[in-house]
């Protein structure tokens, strides 16, 4: 725990004062008690329930996202995480006894989790409640205080997060810092004991650099281009259904959404037809009229995603409406590695389908690129799936589905390389906000002389046996 220090005669800003108050509150030891942690988690769950309607309404204002999806992809997962944490927290916080080596006997050894201290959580806009409050659950469970910075991009949702936190916790324990990038910059200039960031790689690098100034441990939940391999033995009835759901939910604004598809050129026609039929089945002939299809969050992101659509390659969709920030579910074919849509994470309802003629070459092309946050393989068999998953590095992978691994609290969520550093969810979230102390308890006697001079030959022979 490191106290905030300012140069002489420099007045504290409001944020600096709150960080200082949180440092004092953490040092009081209040947040470390198991009973206290459980009480705060129960209080948070109760408040989420009370704010549930406001959350759904806020997300609808920001994205035109249906209430069902907000519960399915955000609120329900928060309830699940809190319940799982409450059931297991006593075990996670207990001392874990480990073996003691022969040279140190008689002694006892154990590992003890302790909170880092004052944490900074910077949330993302695409799932504004889940990706902001989920790490907060882990921070509270581990015994930390927290400054929470929701993304300003989803305006109404950010306000709802602030309302929830302000009405639930005292600011010396958990505080919500609203504002634009200037607020984030001021926060990153301060000294924290832990930083947890969810967002894109470009901003992730800025966060990482700022953390390095104070040697602050970080977790970076980033993104990237997550591929989906559609193999010849895939189930051609259910595969398009799962792909359309995973790609176009929240209008494609999902960090683990399948970013592009790889399919053998022989199978491309039936995959494309299946995708088109499934889009029409879910959203009708005009998805703009569908109550289940969201909108792009703001004009800047709308313009960016729109520019990724190559009109000469539109297989279906392609319609846009700037006034309503609407981009139709769009399938591009045939996509190539040189296309604009393949140069960055799409983060929108545009799905490139890339045909390949050689399976091994397709794997090699993915291998050349930054490691993705997620990987999907659609296949009934084991051999090809195993080859893909053994040769490629990724954060998480699923066979024959998309996105649903996020709901498994027993699996860590996190990337590798450009897609992130560290992970969270369940016990892994508790670990992300904890430091593990190694402790050895030795009696005051006996005390053999082997480690003390003079260093004799018989001592060296004995030492070789003991170590």
Word description of this protein:
With 467 residues, the chain is of the alpha/beta class. Helix 2 (34-50) runs antiparallel to helix 4, helix 3 (52-63) crosses helix 4 and helix 9 crosses helix 10. Strand 8, helix 9 and strand 9 form a beta-alpha-beta unit. The chain is globular, with a radius of gyration of 25 Å. It has helices at residues 14-27, 34-50, 52-63, 67-93, 130-142, 155-168, 181-188, 201-213, 239-248, 268-283, 299-306, 359-367, 383-391, 426-432, 457-466; strands at residues 96-98, 108-115, 118-122, 145-149, 174-176, 194-198, 218-221, 227-230, 260-264, 314-316, 320-321, 326-327, 330-332, 350-356, 374-378, 396-399, 420-421, 434-441. The strands form four sheets. Strands 10-13-14-9-8-15-16 form a seven-stranded mixed sheet, sandwiched between helices. It has two domains: 14-222 and 418-439, Aldehyde Dehydrogenase, Chain A, domain 1; 227-408, 3-Layer(aba) Sandwich (Aldehyde Dehydrogenase, Chain A, domain 2). Helices cover 40% and strands 17% of the residues.
